[in-house]
Amino acid sequence: MNQRRLTAPIYPIFLLVIGSIAAISIAIVMIVAALNPPMRDIQLLTLIMSGTATVTIVVAYVIYHREIMEWFSSLRWTVLATCLLSVALTFMNVWVTARLMFINSHDFVLTTALLMFAGIISAIAGFVVSGTMIKRIYMLAHAAERLADGELNTRLVIKGRDELAQLGRTFNTMAAALQQVDDQKRQLELTRRALIAWVSHDLRTPLA
Predict the structure, then answer these.
(1) Which of 36, 54, 179, 185 could form an S-S bond across to 152 if both were Cys, CB 3.0 to 4.6 Å?
(2) Per-residue CA distances from 36 to 26, 75, 107 (Å)
(3) How many CB atoms lie within 10 A of CB 88?
């Protein structure tokens, strides 16, 4: 358990670094294949993208390590903040790279406008699509409240095969087990009462 706690923070760093290296490599290969720029431009572009990628890694890891996304009181706000963060990091990477590559003012304004358009649309779409996940979590929370109130016949309708679906199946299994235990308890109580009644009747009835 202690080893897991010590090594767990390494995984997101590893994922961020590997993802950044892969993204830079793919971008450079595409640019070289399509434009065949001078080596000096390739080196400059690689340096700029490495710098913005480093900033992205630091920001993402700080947010992950400090658990900032858990500060929100609603999951909807957490999802929206995640979408906006992704858009902001994308905007920063492309905007800074374009700015430092000294593209002309017309192309720079056009790039900025397109980035803002794509970012807003992506954030809205991500927020809307995530509504299905939020709905499933709310349904699970409501079912847990009903179970806590004693409605042991509460069950969830399971859809999908992801972690939430697995959690729903686990909930149904737990609810069924609790209901079975409750039924056994009730049956034992009925048996106990019947036994007490039989013994009491037998004690009151004189032997022939």
Answers:
(1) 179
(2) 14, 46, 20
(3) 14
